[in-house]
Amino acid sequence: MFLAHTSADQAEQLAAAVVGAMRLPSGWCSKFQPHFLSLIFRELLEVEIDFQRIPGLSVAEAGVIFPDPLQRQELIELLVLTEMMVNPIPAELERSLEHWADALNVHDRSLVLARDVATQARAQAQSDFYRLFWMGEEDRQKANFERLLVKHGSQAWTFTVEEDPELSAQWRSLAQLPESTLGAAVWQHYQSHSFTTPGELGGANAALAHHDWLHVLGGYDVDVIGEVENAAFGAGSSSVPGSTLWFLGAMAMFEGGLFDSVVAGCQPHQISAAAGPERVAHALRRGKQCKQDLLAIDYFSVADQPLVDLQEAWGIKD
């Protein structure tokens, strides 16, 4: 859950810590970094921060201000996010991130991805991302997944690479639900985009299909910016292991272009395009406002309930 353990009255100190770690003596590596950070702080903490002007803190000062391990982890996640916005990543930025993580005794899975992309290990970054974020966690719970990965490669992380009739039948049952229900809306989402049914060869696997329920609940498109919004929306709501890494990885793929998406390939600088930063920051806010962890649900158990009722009950707002 992104920035869930930092209060508004700590926002300026948190921002100063990010500046101390990530703003180089020569300034920010890109104009996008301070702009996007200011949007995140405005949307999630409701404060206005000028990341160009605010003085930075040292790691020692930040350690005193933020003794809580959860707050420290959120700080390091912000540093990783800031690093994901640039390509190539300057060695000075990489060293600073490592230093802050070590000094604050944070050993988060996001640092694995940060190290991969800093050394331009694109294939390793892709492998580590899909292994460590929440979809990979779901994939690896399947008894035969390692065999599928060895036989079919990276496509096994997201696609049905061998037919799964049970999964296909479960998804096709959604077509029988009343029109107003969540399940019917998700089935229509698949039909309107001509998506192959999960469980059928070439369709989404169970882990990737899980995120499509969020597309419908949040009303997000399936273009690149919509996928990043969806990742922000889910990460903002969730404390499931690897949920924040979903968002950080989306930033790395679709802004920094630091490694390839299995589904969409390499498409850098998508988020910094017109209106993109505002849309993604707003999606984080919508996720944070949710009363329900959107990744910790068996959606088939609520598929027969009205979509609007679930949105209202879970606090999903426009």
Summarize the structure.
This protein is mainly α and 318 residues long.
Q: What can you tell me about this protein's structure?
A:
The protein has 318 residues and is mainly alpha-helical. 56% of the residues lie in helices and 0% in strands. The radius of gyration is 20 Å and the shape is globular. The model has no long low-confidence stretch (mean pLDDT 95).
E-strand count: 0
Q: How many domains is the backbone divided into?
A: 2
Sheet of most strands: none
Helix/sheet category: mainly alpha
Number of helices: 16
Q: Unreliable stretches, pLDDT < 50, 5 or more residues?
A: none
Mean pLDDT: 95
Report the principal-axis shape.
globular
**Gap between N and C termini, in Å?**
19 Å
> Can you write the helix and strand succession as a string?
HHHHHHHHHHHHHHHH
Q: Tell me the helix content.
A: 55-70%
Q: Strand content of the residues, in percent?
A: under 5%
Give Rg in angstroms. 20 Å
List the helices and strands and how they pair.
Layout: H1 11-22, H2 32-45, H3 59-65, H4 69-83, H5 91-103, H6 110-118, H7 122-132, H8 134-140, H9 145-152, H10 165-172, H11 182-192, H12 206-218, H13 224-237, H14 243-256, H15 276-289, H16 307-313
Helix pairs in contact: 1-3, 1-4, 2-15, 4-5, 5-6, 6-7, 7-8, 8-12, 11-12, 12-13, 13-14, 13-15
Q: What features would you highlight for this structure?
A:
318 residues; mainly alpha; 16 helices; globular; single chain
